[in-house]
Amino acid sequence: WFDKAELMLIYEWMTKDMSFASQFINQEVSPVLSKKCFIGQPVQVGANLAILRIATDSENLRKLKNDRSLLQEDSLIVQKLNILAAKFSSIVKRYTTAGARFQK
Questions:
Q1: pLDDT tens string 24-54
Q2: Quick check: 10 and 2 in contact, CB under 8 A?
Q3: For residue 80, what are the contacts with CB-CB under 8 A and spacing of at least 6?
Q4: I need a surface site. Which of 18, 43, 77, 83 has the fewest CB within 10 A?
């Protein structure tokens, strides 16, 4: 589980090209990490529990009927979230809050 501050980092990373992090994770994930993804900000739902939200709007739901590529985009969002969550410790070790830059 992640606290809200950690989820804010993941939320921020989702909006950035994080492909450079693949150098210390796995080169194969670079295309997924390079995608800028926009999701809901973390929400505190309990004393020690926060969540990240993924949602689609009604317009995209209607488009799904004729355009299955939206599912690929959703899949990419979930893949990137999974990588960032699974490798959070490795990534955050190289992350500096001053200037939000990564150390190589």
A1: 777 788 899 999 999 999 999 988 889 998 8
A2: yes
A3: 14, 18, 32, 33, 35, 37
A4: 43
| Eight-class DSSP state of 46 | E
Q: Which two tokens stand for residue 58?
A: 């009604």
Structure tokens belonging to residue 42: 């973390």
74 phi/psi in degrees, rounded to 5? -60, -40
Task: Give me the residues of the chain with pLDDT under 70, please.
Answer: 95-104
Q: How far apart are CA 58 and CA 44, in angstroms?
A: 25
pTM: 0.80
Question: Over pLDDT 70: what percentage of the chain?
Answer: 90
